[in-house]
Amino acid sequence: MDDLLAELTTLETELHHPGAICTRERLERLLHPDFHEVGRSGARYTRQAVIDFLADRGAPPQVIAYDHRIEQLAADVALLHFGSHEVAADGTHRHAALRMSVWRRTSAGWQLHYHQGTPTTP
After folding, report:
1. With contact defined as beta carbons under 8 Å apart, do 122 and 65 qualify?
2. Which position has the higher pLDDT, 41 or 104?
3. 41, 96, 113, 114: which could form a disulfide with 85 (CB 3.0–4.6 Å)?
4. What does the alpha-carbon distance between residue 50 and residue 52 come to, in Å, rounded to a whole number?
5. pLDDT (0 to 100) of residue 34
6. In the predicted structure, residue 14 carries a pLDDT above the cut 70
7. What is the full DSSP assignment across 70-114?
8. Which pLDDT score is estimated for 66?
9. According to the model, what pLDDT value does residue 21 have?
10. pTM
11. What CA–CA distances, in Å, run from 72 to 2, 8, 57, 109?
């Protein structure tokens, strides 16, 4: 289970763009064809909307993710829980959220199937 937690945490972190912009091609491999999201704002997003947003933004904010834990829901399905916040240019923390991601193992490897963020205090 520790290996799976490490693998999915690495893939999830890649979506936060630590230090680099994630390419459209990489996003298309990471996001399952049926991917959808309910963001921290409560808005619903399609796979294409998320790919367009993440691939087209310039300098992504610094995202800190922490307290990762995993639940194996089936042999090829896992639920990743974690907290996150962004670090503003002045060093303050903003947009704190509790997050859950459903990952599915497919012939293409692990792909993010669903993601939800719920606002919380920093």
Report:
1. no
2. 104
3. 96
4. 5
5. 98
6. yes
7. EEEEETTEEEEEEEEEEE-TTS-EEEEEEEEEEEEEETTEEEEEE
8. 94
9. 63
10. 0.90
11. 11, 11, 33, 16
How does DSSP assign 13-69, residue by residue? HHHT-SSSPPPHHHHHHHEEEEEEEE-TTS-EEEHHHHHHHHHH-SSPPEEEEEEEE
SS3 label, residue 115: strand
* Identity of residue 75: A
Show the tokens assigned to 71: 């639940």
Q: Is 120 helix (H, G, I), strand (E, B) or coil?
A: coil
Distances from the Cα of 24 to the Cα of 13, 28, 70, 71, 76, angstroms: 16, 6, 27, 29, 25
